[in-house]
């Protein structure tokens, strides 16, 4: 039976604080660091937070080269 391995500290950091950062980015940081494609970054962060949860899917890779 599958049991999730749990969330690591970096995933937890993003899960707890990224949305607040994204909401404030334009007003607080864009003037200094430039504009981000926050929609795309948010999509990547959401996928990262789910990484390692096999119930969300997984990839199986097999080498077929005999050498």
Explain this structure.
The chain has 67 residues and is mostly helical. It has one domain. It is built from three helices and no strands. The chain is elongated. The termini are far apart.
Q: Major beta sheet, specifics? A: none
Strand content: under 5%
Give the rounded overall mean pLDDT.
83
Q: How many β-strand runs?
A: 0
Ends distance: 35 Å
Number of domains: 1
Structural class: mainly alpha
Q: Low-confidence stretches at least 5 residues in length (pLDDT < 50)?
A: none
Oligomer: single chain
Number of distinct helices? 3
Shape: elongated
Helix content: 55-70%
Tell me the layout of helices and strands:
Elements: H1 9-28, H2 30-33, H3 38-50
Brief rundown of the structure:
This protein has helices at residues 9-28, 30-33, 38-50.
Feature tags:
67 residues
């Amino acid at each position: 039976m599958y049991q999730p391995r749990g969330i690591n500290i970096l995933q937890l950091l993003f899960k707890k604080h990224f949305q607040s950062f994204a909401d404030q980015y334009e007003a607080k940081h864009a003037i200094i660091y430039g504009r981000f494609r926050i929609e795309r970054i948010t999509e990547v962060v959401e996928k990262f937070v789910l990484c390692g949860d096999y119930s969300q899917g997984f990839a199986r890779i097999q080498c077929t080269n005999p050498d």
